[in-house]
Amino acid sequence: MTQFITPYGKLYLSPVIDFYTREILSYDISENADYAQIRRILQSLVANYGSHLRGAILHSDQGWQYQMPRYQAFLRNHGILQSMSRKGNCLDNAPTENFFGRLKTELYYDKKFSYHSLQHLNLAISQYIKYYNNERIVSRLQCSPVQYKNKMNIIKYITPRVLNSLFILMG
Which domains does the chain have, with CATH numbers? Predict the structure, then answer.
């Protein structure tokens, strides 16, 4: 999770990232960093990918949300394997932290006061994620994550092999 502090309050962004394509598969932007936010992300992920998530590994840090029995039960009920970094192991979280750094550099830093409200910042973050998924070229893929999925004809047929590195990051 990353936090945006503005004169109007705080926003918290929590994404689920496919570590192979770097696509943001699901995300939630909220004024509260709570379990309800995590639940919305997981429900969206399951609504979009359903049974194709069975066997996928969902990685997180050791945040309190990921240690909750409700979170762990949700993953088990959908056949998703839970993985947590050991304390102080930031390398597991590097791709998500890279996304947060890129997002804040390109969208937020030096622009903190150009947003007129939390809703305006929320919209800007959502638009950035749309750009990030659909237009940004991933050099390893030589196209955007969505273009890669279209090219490989795996839009709704993502297998655990492709998603074996799904990560959710809460800092």
Answer: 2-168 (3.30.420.10)
